Each structure stands twice: as structure tokens, then as C-alpha cells.
Amino acid sequence: MRDLAGGGFIAQQRNVVLVGGTGTGKTHLAIAIARSCIRAGSRGRFFTTVDLVNQLEAEGRAGRQGRSLRRGLADRQRQALADRGAQFGEAQ
Q: What is the pTM of this model?
């Protein structure tokens, strides 16, 4: 965790994927890693996957096809996504 918090993966242009069951702390760790990297000078943004998909769908309906989202992300070095218990492809 210290290695991730140090942000070495950013300089190496590597991704970080946290995998585990519900309630194991993946989102908490992702936020902690992102905050540490931001404090060290990186720029970033956090999304839940559901929020990101909803925003992309809304832009698609408005005929923008994600253009404003792309512009908003272009000045960020990193994005963090969390599924927050999303169930894709299943009836709820």
C-alpha cells in the first residue's frame, strides 16, 4: 500500500485495479491512494462507475457523445473509478 500511496505507478504509466468482495474496502483504498497522489502534486478525479455511465448516457442523449466529459477529464492526469456495488446486466 505504501508503494501505491507513493504514486510510483503514475511515473510508470501503470493502472491500479483493486479487486475484492463487497465491503472489503476497495473504494476506501482507492480514495486514500488518490488523495495521497494528489497531495504529492498529481491531478485527478474520482467517479463511481454508475455516475460515469449516467453522465455518458446523458451526453449521448444530448448529442454530445461524451465531448464535455472528455474536455473535463483532459486536464486530469488520473481518474479513479469505483463500482460501489453496481450490478451491470442484471435486473434489479
A: 0.62
Fold of 2-82: Rossmann fold (3.40.50)
State the Cα torsion 20-66-51-87 to the nearest 10°. Answer: -50
Three-class SS state of 81: strand
Q: Which residues contact 34 (CB under 8 A, 6 or more apart)?
A: 44, 46, 78, 80
Tens-digit pLDDT profile for residues 73-84: 665 555 666 665
For 10-22, b/e burial (b = at least 16 CB within 10 A) is beeeeeeeeeeee
Compute the chain's Rg from CA coordinates: 15
pLDDT at 79: 60
